[in-house]
Amino acid sequence: MREEEKSPVRGGAGISRRTFAIGAVGSVAMLGLGAVKLVGAESVVRPPGAQDENAFLAACIHCERCREVCPRHAIKPATLESGLLNLRTPEMDYHRGWCDFCESAEGGEPLCVRACPTHALRLPGLPASEHVRLGMAVINTDWCLAFQAMGCHECVDACTFEAMGVNDDGTPYVIEDACNGCGACEHACVSLSSGSISVGATDRAIVIVPAEGEVLHG
Ligand code: SF4
Ligand code: SF4
Ligand code: SF4
User: What are the b/e assignments for 44-79, b being 16+ CB within 10 Å?
Assistant: First the structure.
């Protein structure tokens, strides 16, 4: 049995959503504004070239040019939900689109990287899809229709990077070495729209989580 077959849900410190505390208190201030984080920043999934988070935050001027040029509408400005430090910085939005790394673009350089005036988006090499890992796909087996024997494999069909497979029982798995976080699987996931039988599902059954600092073949 393959390693990924045993463990469809991936976790671990390397990719988990981490909160970066700043200031003396080093905690999240709530101040009666619900879940809004006024101090600190959630780790978010960034466009290609922003995987060195500290360098990115130092250089990004929140101009939103990357978002404006994205042909797949896969970038959104982060809200306060992602923390004050991230406010209006670019964050991937796989509900609206996914990232094909603009591989059909002339010269192969992603349009968002080309549009960034401060080089906050900076690539380690081209093609971007082979050098950059935006995040990692993670399957929630409680919410996935295939794990409820409903015969779904939309995410597997959507993956163009051969980073997903199907077990003998029809359940999908992620091939972590090949996944670059493009988000086509999350974009295609029908678990909510087709009526997941899971009580309490609040998100799609496959989501991309941050893989900060990780590279595919740097
Ligand atoms: S590489 Fe292209 S598709 Fe991907 S986020 Fe940038 S502009 Fe959008
Ligand atoms: S598993 Fe999902 S995020 Fe990873 S490469 Fe395939 S479609 Fe993209
Ligand atoms: S598309 Fe969603 S519900 Fe369907 S198999 Fe993939 S993760 Fe499961």
Answer: bbbbbbbbbbeebbebbeeebbbbebbebebbbebe
